[in-house]
Amino acid sequence: MARYRSGRLAGEIQKQVAQIISRDLKNPELELVSVLAVDASPDFSSARIYISPPPGKENDINLIAAALDNSKGYIRHLLGQRMKMRQIPELYFHIDNSIAYGVKMISMIDKQIEADKARAALRPPEEENKYEK
User: Fold this and answer.
1) Residue 133: what pLDDT?
2) Nearest CA among 37, 34, 31, 30 for reference residue 13
3) CA atoms of 22 and 78, how far apart (whole Å)
């Protein structure tokens, strides 16, 4: 039963933090930041929030982390107003580059496929009856 409750709580924290970051914070570094997941501790005293930088701003991770650390108290304050909990968890933000890494890998695979097709077009055709005798 507790696992179900912590899952619901983590989902609600994720939804509320995403809304706070996108609507209430006026920081340009946090404009298109996505909240990927939330891990709440079993006693709800802390929550790890996984953030993904917007596309094209993967190099600005330090600015995003600093902006989140500066806004941590305000985010927690607004979270306390929106969620009726006895104790609001301490927030710990972690930058997750898995989406950017996946996009980079897909582009590398696409480039390799194109290179393979170009090399295959230059190769002479094989004889069809090469192994039949």
Assistant:
1) 59
2) 37
3) 13
- The pLDDT value recorded for residue 110 is 95
pLDDT in tens, 80-127: 888 888 888 899 999 888 777 888 899 999 999 999 999 888 887 777
The tokens for 71 are 């806004």
Distance CA 116, CA 108 (A): 12
DSSP states along 32-96: T-EEEEEEE-TTSSEEEEEEEPPTT-GGGHHHHHHHHHHHHHHHHHHHHHHS--SSPPEEEEEE-
Q: What share of the chain is helix, strand, coil (3-state, %, to 5)?
A: 55, 15, 30
Superfamily of domain 2-97: K homology (KH) domain (3.30.300.20)
In terms of Cβ atoms closer than 10 Å to its own Cβ (0-12, 13-18, 19+), residue 98 is: exposed
Report pLDDT for 1.
44
In this prediction, residue 105 carries a pLDDT of 92
Distance CA 13, CA 47 (A): 9
